[in-house]
Amino acid sequence: MRKLTYLIATSIDGFIGDESGEAEFFTKYVDEEYLAYGFEELPEMMPTFARQHFGIDDRPNQRFDAVLMGRGTYDVGLPQGVTSPYGHLKQYVVSRSMEKAPAPEVELVSGDMVAKVRELKRQDGLGIWLCGGADLAGQLVDEIDELVIKTYPCLLGSGMPLATAGFAIREFALESVKSFSGGNVITTYSRQR
Prior knowledge:
This protein has helices spanning 32-41, 48-53, 71-75, 113-122, 134-139, and strands spanning 4-11, 15-17, 64-70, 90-94, 106-109, 127-132, 146-152, 160-161, 172-179, 185-191.
């Protein structure tokens, strides 16, 4: 059975962006060492245009072959004409208001997201990457099998949280911690059921 992995960037104090979800400022903390690790260990998390730019577009997907993103996450690239941000993955965009996907490679999803994720998990393939945002993560919090938290060395004080789920204790076990000389840390947790 496929896993749903919430792989997300966050500040030390747990915010994935400002109040609107903008998170471009995290790129300030990406250095050569961190990029090299991403190229080697998580090449599928790079948008297709970035994979082409860095010459890694021929690298096979290692962990994921599908990406699930909320409308706000998807909309980030639209002003630059990026309608298929992760063309190397099967792309699902959750939206109640979009009537037609801007690209044929993008499948719009609405309705019962838990049922949709359970359906995707039953299909053959690699894992499913929950790319963001906080509302979608909140809706799917009980379906998340793994957390991969990319923590950047900054405090924001306020902003968009990791997930907008109601209070409940949801236990995860620490699987690994990878730290980088620039202060970034990637922490992986698996769901304890």
